Amino acid sequence: MFNTVLFPVDRSREAREAAEVVSNIVKTYNSRLVLLSVVEAKPDNDMNSEPEVAKLLQGAKALFGEQGITAEILEKEGIPSFTICDVADEINADLIIMGSRGLGLAQENPNESVAHRAIDLAPCPVMIVP
User: Fold this and answer.
1) What is the pTM (predicted TM-score) of this model?
2) Closest alpha carbon to 1 in 124, 130, 83, 88
3) Long-range contact list for 22-26, CB < 8 A, 24+ apart?
4) Average pLDDT value over all residues in the chain
5) pLDDT of amino acid 43
6) Around Cβ 3, how many Cβ atoms within 10 Å?
7) What percentage of residues in the chain have a pLDDT greater than 70?
8) Total Cβ atoms within 10 A of residue 31
9) Where is the UspA domain (predicted)?
């Protein structure tokens, strides 16, 4: 059912918590797992450096490796919601699993959250883990 699962990762607590759900689904469906880090081209973004992104992705890959899950890693630059959906299309993802900070609903325009935009734009189902 879920042959390829895309898991966008960042350093948020929500992404770490979503990892357990990702692990369960990947194991249940024997899915291919692709980890993605999207770097926004902003001068104040502390995740702009290649070493930081590489460290994040390698750490996530190792975490899944400890559970017997092989993960592929991708690093892209762009607007997160659009890039996540573009990558999902490129890799023929059957499911995108994302953590949600829950900030979008508290703001005046809930459509501004990455998760909300991904739901609207994704070429496949999106599971949001609160």
Assistant:
1) 0.88
2) 124
3) 22/64, 22/97, 23/64, 23/67, 23/69, 25/95, 25/97, 25/127, 26/64, 26/69
4) 88
5) 57
6) 12
7) 85
8) 19
9) 1-130
The 8-class DSSP code of residue 13 comes to H
Task: Determine which helix (DSSP H) or strand (DSSP E) holds 89, and give its type and residue range.
Answer: helix 80-90
Backbone angles phi, psi at 30, to 5 degrees: 50, 50
Domains annotated for the chain, with CATH where assigned, are 4-129 (3.40.50.620)
Q: What b-and-e string marks burial along 91-103, b requiring 16 or more CB atoms within 10 Å of the CB?
A: bebbbbbbbbeee
Q: Using the structure block, give the residue that is written with the tokens 């998760």.
A: 115
Question: For residues 101 and 71, what is the distance between their CA atoms, to the nearest angstrom?
Answer: 24
